[in-house]
Write a structure and sequence with these properties.
Elements: H1 2-25, H2 28-31, H3 43-66, H4 72-93, H5 100-116
Helix pairs in contact: 1-3, 1-5, 3-4, 4-5
Length: 119
C-alpha cells in the first residue's frame, strides 16, 4: 500500500504543482489555450487556485515524507477531490463537455484518499 500511495501521490503532486505554477505565473492570454474557463473567473481567483494547488501538492507529499502530521495527506487528497468536483461544475456551467481529465483526476485523488488512510 505504501508504494501504491507514493506512486499515486507523486503523480498527483507533479500534475498539481505544474498546473498551479502555470496559474500563478502566466497571464490570462497565456492560460486561455489550455484553460478555456479563465475568461469567466477573475484573475486573482485563478492565482489563488494555483496557490491552493501548489500547497495541496506539498500536502500530499511532505507530511508522510517527514512523518509530521501525516493525516494532512488525506486532507490534501480530499481537497483535490472537492476541487475537481468544482472544476466539473464550472466546465458544465460554461457548456464545456471536456471533463475526462477532471474525472480522471477526481478518481485518482479518491484513490489517494483511500491509500492515505492506510499509511
Amino acid at each position: 500500500m505504501n508504494i501504491a500511495y507514493w506512486i499515486v501521490a507523486s503523480l498527483l503532486a507533479l500534475f498539481y504543482a505544474y498546473a498551479g505554477t502555470l496559474k500563478v505565473t502566466r497571464t490570462r492570454d497565456q492560460l486561455r489555450p489550455m484553460m478555456a474557463w479563465v475568461d469567466r473567473v477573475p484573475l486573482p481567483a485563478v492565482r489563488t487556485l494555483g496557490a491552493v494547488e501548489i500547497l495541496g501538492a506539498a500536502g500530499l507529499t511532505l507530511p508522510p515524507l517527514t512523518g509530521i502530521a501525516p493525516t494532512l495527506a488525506s486532507a490534501a487528497a480530499i481537497g483535490f477531490v472537492l476541487l475537481q468536483i468544482g472544476a466539473v461544475a464550472v466546465h458544465l456551467t460554461i457548456e464545456d463537455r471536456r471533463i475526462a481529465l477532471n474525472a480522471a483526476l477526481t478518481t485518482t485523488a479518491a484513490v489517494a484518499v483511500w491509500l492515505a488512510t492506510r499509511l
